[in-house]
Task: structure prediction
Amino acid sequence: MLEALEAGDQIELDVTDVSDVDLSFVQMLHAAREQARRSGKTVRLRAPAGDAIVALLDRAGFLAAPTPDDLDFWFHGECPQ
Result:
């Protein structure tokens, strides 16, 4: 992922088929987003996060008070109910 960030200004990830996910996935994406931000680049999801990712974010407490940037990244603007 870091090589892709070095090669271009944006990475678009397709995580639509992700069905088994753990916290290391969220940590990796958070680190990539932060590195991209510091470099003036962007990491985004091709489509809003699916059920497995939403469930993990909820269990880990990320949905308790999400920032506008997090809502945009994970859900393309709208937090699922």
The mean pLDDT is 91. The two ends are 31 Å apart (CA to CA). The chain has one domain: 2-74.
